[in-house]
User: Fold this.
Amino acid sequence: MTVAWSGASCADLLVRVTEAALGRQLPDGSMTAGHNGPYRDPETPLRNSSHWLHAFLKAYSLTGERRFEHAAHRIARLLLRPEMRPGGYTFHYRTAPGKDRCSGLIGQAWTLESLALAWSHFQSDEHLALALDCFRSLPFDQQYGLWQVRDIDGSLHGFDKTLNHQLWFAAAASRLLSSGAPELSDALEIFLDRLPQYFALFPNGLIYHDSILQTESRRRRIVTAPTRVVGSRLFPRSVLQLGLVANVDSLYMKSVGYHAFCTYALATLKLRLPAHAFWQSASLFKAVDYLRSSDYWSLINVESRYGFPYNAPGFEVPFSVITLGGGTDIEAAQLASLWVTAQARRTFNAMSMRFDRGTPDPETLTARIYEMTALSNEILRAAVLEDSGSIE
Assistant:
């Protein structure tokens, strides 16, 4: 059976998907856990619950229906429970053997941003205090401008070497700036000051996705990887028509899959620290230009691991482009129409009201609709899903 979604707005989509999620909220207020997409790390319900808090409050803002706010409040109360931070340091995110249980900085970022939202929406000093305590529990090195990882038992694991993790933690912390805590603004200014040395790009503007501290290896890969991938001078795009993408460089394609995820965090930071010089840097402009390019569109449409099935660029690109590159609400709505339609075509199931097609982790991908909440209600209402026939 198929259901036509052509003509529905992005606001309609968000409300309908979130409405369906109401029936999946568990008695303790939590939402069903996923397993971190293609990584298949078993997770606690904390990640998806944190994501849904945003979606529920956006649905409440769009409809005025209290049931959405009540669901968000149940999650907000869940975040305060001591068992969410069993050691009193960081939040417990995953149970994968051999890996930290806090999920690096990124796990803490997802809950930190939800605590910040609960504080601002419910005017809850409890959530602000917990958010600041979480932020302060992770050591910040002023020389490197990076945060270290602290596990749930208090043990330290050194710097988190993944750029998107550092970006997202900084972005989440920036949501607390209005609290006036001086250590927030100081750390974020230093982070942005140091960011250019970690913000490496391939020649076309694609953000390099690998360890930010392996400088020599990074330079070597940046030079050689593009010669082996679709769209490069030595790997013509015509190959796309033949579907021959099995031999593309895995690091390069992973970078394609994470490009919009990185720019989304940068856009969140720019909203709250708009005066910093980094936003006028040539490297940032180049990364945004790549996000708008036909090369990116071509590659993200064939990247089958980290793109539409996991990182959901359909929810990330419109906010990234408009916030970092500028544009009107009309242009933002057009971008949202294009990209959310692309996301829906590949992964949305109108029967289940979930993004459960072509993904290894339907619970997490569906929860990531919360990334659309960064767009205003007006833009979401004006953005109409394009004619794509029917969605299975």
User: Anything to note?
Assistant: Strands lie at 140-141, 146-150, 156-159. The longest strand covers residues 146-150. The chain has 16 helices and three strands.
